[in-house]
Q: What sequence folds into this?
């Protein structure tokens, strides 16, 4: 899906950047991706009896408050080329481009127990040094972890969990 989505994401990003409209495009793509991920919408997109015009009307109707002429044309282009199903990947790639330009990265931190404020700040600083970017952290408690943390940032996973450490220790023997 990345191969299909990349040219659309790049074009949308370049246009939005040139028009100084990155935030509005990001919001529209995020909502459009959410719509495209809905199971009933996925089924509708696969239905050959539904016309391109009907699908475009559906998306444009729901997205109306977020659309201007250019964003509406983008949705139209995706519908004509039967690429509305690629919207989640387009939104992800757009957001990745925006994060790269702003030198930020989002990371999910999973821990067995809630982390205190001091630890969160130290972790944020350490990750900022490691990734050489500003880090936006999202914390989640995962009781299935024995202890430690697992961090997912982009395509990188840092496994500092007790289970991960034990696995690495066993692999070394």
A:
């Amino acid at each position: 899906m990345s191969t299909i989505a990349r040219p659309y994401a790049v074009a949308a990003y370049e246009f939005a950047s040139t028009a100084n409209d990155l935030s509005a495009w990001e919001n529209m793509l995020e909502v459009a991706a959410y719509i495209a991920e809905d199971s009933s919408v996925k089924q509708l997109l696969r239905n050959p009896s539904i016309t391109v015009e009907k699908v475009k009307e559906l998306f444009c109707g729901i997205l109306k408050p977020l659309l201007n002429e250019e964003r509406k044309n983008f949705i139209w282009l995706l519908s004509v080329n039967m690429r509305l199903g690629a919207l989640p990947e387009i939104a992800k790639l757009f957001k990745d481009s925006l994060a790269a330009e702003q030198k930020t990265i989002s990371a999910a931190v999973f821990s067995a127990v809630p982390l205190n404020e001091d630890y969160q700040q130290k972790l944020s600083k350490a990750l900022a040094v490691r990734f050489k970017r500003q880090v936006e952290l999202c914390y989640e408690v995962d009781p299935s972890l024995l202890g430690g943390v697992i961090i997912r940032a982009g395509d990188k996973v840092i496994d500092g969990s007790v289970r991960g450490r034990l696995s690495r220790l066993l692999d070394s023997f």
About this structure: Residues 45 and 85 are 7 Å apart (CA to CA). The mean pLDDT is 89. The helical segments are 2-18, 22-37, 39-46, 52-63, 69-80, 87-102, 117-131, 162-171. The chain has two domains: 2-99, 103-171.
